[in-house]
Amino acid sequence: MPPERSPVPQDAEIExxxxxxxxxxxxxxxxxxxxxxxxxxxxxxxxxxxxxLAAWAERVFGIEIPDDDIDGDHLESVAMIADYVGRRLRExx
Amino acid sequence: xxxxxxxxxxxxxxxxxxxxEQRPDAEALVFVDRREGERSLKLRDLWxxxxxxxxxxxARGLRPGEVVVLVLPTSPELIAVYFGAVLAGGIPAMLxxxxxxxxxxxxxxxxxxxxxxxxxxxxxVCEADTASLLxxxxxxxxxxxxxxxxxxxxxxxLATPVRCDPERIATMQYSSGTTGxxxxxxxxxxxxxNNLRSMRAAFELxxxxxxxxxxxxxxxxxxxxxxxxxxxxxxxxxxxxxMDFMRDPAIWLRAFDTYRGTFAWAPHLAYALCARxxxxxxxxxxxxxxxxxxxxxSEPALASTLRDFCERMAKYGFARETMCPGWGxxxxxxxxxxxxxxxxxxxxxxxxxxxxxxxxxxxxAGEGVSVVSIGVPIPDxxxxxxxxxxxxxxxxxxxxxxxxxxxxxxxxHGDEERTKRVLVDGWLDTGDRGYLADGELFFVARDKxxxxxxxxxxxxxxxxxxINGVPGVRAGCAVAFGVLNAxxxxxxxxxxxxxxxxxxxxxxxxxxIRAAVSRSIGLGIRHLHLVPPGGxxxxxxxxxxxxxxxxxxxxxxxxxxxx
Lengths: 93, 563
Fold this sequence. Notes:
The structure holds two protein chains of two kinds. Chain A is 54% helix and 0% strand. By secondary structure, chain A is mainly α. In chain A, helix 1 (11-26) packs across helix 4. The longest helix of chain A is centred in the N-terminal third of the chain and has 16 residues, at 11-26. Chain A is globular and about 35 Å long. Chain B is built from 20 helices and 28 strands.
């Protein structure tokens, strides 16, 4: 019998996991940001941190993020990151 | 004997040819990446590919002494084209491919266009996607010959490699700065081979060493230290694409285990990443005991990071002596000083008052400034600390670091004036400040005002120019500088900007400034402060004081962001 595929996480669930990750791995003060706060051009996530975040998202959500998408144009805020991950998940499903 | 290729060679061509003759079937180059796993290249195959590229370039009109610009990722193709250009008597100049840092394609392409304008190359070699970007955005390149590595490697008739004089230029390095006039540092075959020989002696490298590196090859450290040095010493050389390391730093450590790696170069931030950001399960079962040289260079080393890395990796077999802080610069080919691979890193704490008031380095048992030794000069290299009038200073006196070696650069391409300013009577004015103690070099601060983030150098003038272009910013009234984040092990970008804008408009202006710098330079401003006109400290001559502002930064502005 084929393994059950888990349901595609909703954007809200993606966001909450992302917030925990940002807090635990990057020391981001969650009280100081909202889902639209820019993280890349404010230097909260420098280029190294952004690549690591992409690698984490790939691992945790089982998606692929090409090198060219790892920048502020695609992943500037919590909202944009969650949206991007959601889209990749739906493409995969 | 294995030492011969480097000992007898007068040019890079000689060295590679001799190496290939000695061990044609050696799998000298191994490419490890996160997708394709492992690909290896035998020396004989590398030689054939390089010879094909040589023919391909010559057939397309390349003449000895002409520049070939390479915009390629770490790969067998990059290596083949680099050597192919050298065999044809050309001068390769490598640039970064468009990276995740710079989101604006037109900024990437304009940097390539600047380098092309400065170097007037025969051609630019890049992959199809880069060629298409360049075609779309850079009108300055419309008459530049764009070539792809594939067709160049199709074997034509193989001509003899060009034999040139060792004084001829082997490679051109383009150093810091994203806009404005790029500086092309030109090094001769003689200088390169001299520096490789000195490094080999300093590291005591033999053909049984194994190099494992992820640093990009378009920087001097990558090209000469992490690639040419181990290769021409007959070592197995494992190369990992930079982005793959950034995604998963453990890929570097796993490769040490797999290939019994002994030797690597990395900027300080890589050791900080590995010390603090990897999970225990990423490291489980790794045996790093073969690793005997971890060069820590290109960024100031922090004692706390070195300690954390050594402590964490000790249980996987990493010895403290393996960590080797060192230093060099492109104007000395790549390397000048090194902490001995046989000793643990040395650091000391010096008295802050003595440093500031008397410019001397006095060790103190109490609180003070922590400094890490970057070692003793490598063979054929001499360091002298001098005052502003170029008079030599005794040990423990802080001054400008001057360097003499047999590996100094020939000139900055097309800029005799600037060359003459830094090369004086056979000595190089490195622009750094430090002191000698027991023959070891310690750095205190930089004269150059460069901002070092993630191992990359950024010119504050570039950042300030972008900020000055944002409407609402008082023209010419912005200073940018780096602020150290010890925990991250690297600097963060700070900027103080004068404006007449007030109230609600301030946060909109802050957004605009951040967006502009992010797009143009690929950096986020971590600490942005908007101040009213006249709010930035000035020097006695009335110019904005970047140094003063940077030195007073934590006191004046406090820990948090103002905008």
